[in-house]
Design goal:
alpha/beta; Aspartate Aminotransferase, domain 2; 3 domains; seven-stranded mixed sheet; four-stranded antiparallel sheet; globular; disordered N terminus; pyridoxal phosphate; PyrdxlP-dep_de-COase; Glutamate decarboxylase; lyase; PyrdxlP-dep_Trfase_major
Length: 466
């Protein structure tokens, strides 16, 4: 639909929209209020066209190399999505088959992550891995409180040890659940949480340590086994028994297939829980996440609610209540459709595309890689040296003009003076598309290098939000 927007005031608020009469049906309004319900009904075709046309102003999701979230599924998955759009995941009594599939999915993940006894564990689907992280962190806090109360000690000052490079969900967790965040700074020598100086952050009030399997800034893995070994030393010296939650939003659905010998999961005895995003490298449309605990003792009973299910009892735990069931079915579809070998091929292909791109960018000469994309298929780079007339924000702007979203942003606290640029490779970014992207980067770098004066900047730069 062709649209003309009219500003009804001198401010920035767009109060009404006018509909070109060519597309309006007899008896329908030709202008609509923007922030109020319209008085009358309209044809479903007109309503669809209005929403459809405005949504076209969004970018092309396939070219969004900032997001980790899946932007492509096959036609059968789309069909299944449409058929299941009305299912409410929380209504287990009315949708028992979907409830059974949810239970099956997290048990599949528990097995994939080498849980010691799949019959003595618990897990759940969530709206995304942010909710899963909240549940994993909350379980750590409750376990710590139980131990402290049993020993007659105070429970008033819990803290959680985190890398400064964690995703913002952990800042939210600490804020919402009254936990002191203890951020360990990153540096050029310690880009990941590797146990360096960990003993200066851990004390008797530490509820746990968060390990990240795939940092959003760089794609790098925290070495979970090295963290666990350091915590073993701390327990031997100070008596603090501190567990680990693995935030595997991305890597927990890559490492089992592409780095199967890497010890990061429940093979590491200090790992209490693992979370992941089904809608990232689980290859499902948003939004679905998963969290699994080592065993039932690792998830306090106080977090679990019990519902009637097929005449029996089903434990359930989640922060959200009503939520879509379709994505859970899509996750199971992918598990069946791909299996271990299919997931390995898909994820390895993404890694191959990522390393192809990172090698091409490194070869240009203007850039230096921070990571290569050989862990999860995500990599970042910096300028090898400052350029006279442009920076990475300018390159991001030039690529955006061509439809590619390749963000530039500062590194986390203690490294904020360093600006990097990052690419996330997902299913749907083929080698052919990667070649087109690499050609676009080369062309835009050539344009920027030939500038006779600095790029004009009308306002302060805004960094990419993780």
């Amino acid at each position: 639909m062709s649209e003309i927007f009219r500003n009804a005031s001198a401010g920035d608020a767009w109060e009404t929209r006018e509909i070109n009469p060519v597309f309006a049906r007899p008896g329908e309004a030709t202008s609509l209020p923007r922030f109020k319900l319209p008085d009358d009904m309209m044809s479903e075709d007109t309503a669809y066209q209005l929403v459809h046309d405005e949504a076209m102003l969004d970018g092309n999701s396939r070219l969004n190399l900032a997001t980790f979230v899946s932007t492509w599924m096959d036609d059968r998955a789309k069909q299944l999505y449409a058929e299941a759009a009305d299912k409410n995941m929380i209504d287990k009594d009315e949708y028992p088959a979907t409830a059974a599939i949810e239970d099956r999915c997290w048990r599949i993940l528990a097995d994939l992550w080498n849980v010691p006894d799949v019959s003595d564990t618990i897990g759940t689907s969530t709206v995304g891995s942010s909710e899963a992280c909240m549940l994993g962190g909350l379980a750590l806090k409750r376990l710590w409180q139980q131990r402290r109360r049993a020993a007659g000690l105070s429970t008033e000052r819990p803290n959680l040890v985190l890398s400064a490079g964690v995703q913002v969900v952990w800042e939210k967790f600490c804020n919402y659940w009254d936990v002191e965040p203890r951020y360990m700074p990153v540096s050029a020598d310690h880009l990941v949480l590797d146990g360096h100086e960990l003993d200066t952050y851990v004390d008797e009030n530490t509820i746990g340590v968060v390990a990240i399997l795939g940092h959003t800034y760089t794609g790098l893995y925290d070495p979970v086994d090295a963290l666990a070994a350091k915590l073993d030393e701390i327990q031997e010296k100070h008596g603090f028994d501190v567990k680990i939650h693995v935030d595997g939003a991305s890597g927990a659905m890559v490492a089992p297939f592409c780095q199967p010998d890497l010890a990061w999961d429940f093979r590491v005895s200090r790992v209490n829980s693992i979370s992941t995003s089904g809608h990232k490298y689980g290859l499902v449309y948003p939004g679905v996440g998963w969290v699994v605990w080592r065993d039932r003792a690792a998830c306090p009973e106080s977090l679990i609610f019990h519902v009637s299910y097929l005449g029996g009892d089903m434990p359930t735990l989640a922060l959200n209540f009503s939520r879509p069931g379709a994505q859970v079915l899509l996750q199971y579809y992918q598990f069946l459709r791909l299996g271990r070998e299919g997931y390995r091929k898909v994820q390895q292909n993404s890694i191959d595309v990522a390393t192809y791109l990172s090698s091409g960018i490194a070869a240009m000469g203007q850039f230096e890689l921070i990571s290569r994309g050989d862990a999860i298929p995500v990599f970042a780079w910096k300028l090898a040296k400052p350029r006279a007339n442009w920076d990475l924000y300018d390159l991001a702007d030039r690529l955006r003009m061509r439809g590619w979203l390749v963000p530039a942003y500062p590194m986390p606290e203690s490294m904020t003076s360093l600006t990097v640029q990052r690419i996330v490779v997902r299913l749907g970014l083929s080698r052919d598309l990667a070649e087109l992207l690499l050609a676009a980067i080369r062309e835009e770098v050539a344009f920027l290098e030939n500038l006779a004066a600095p790029m004009p900047r009308e306002k302060p730069r805004t960094s990419f939000a993780h």
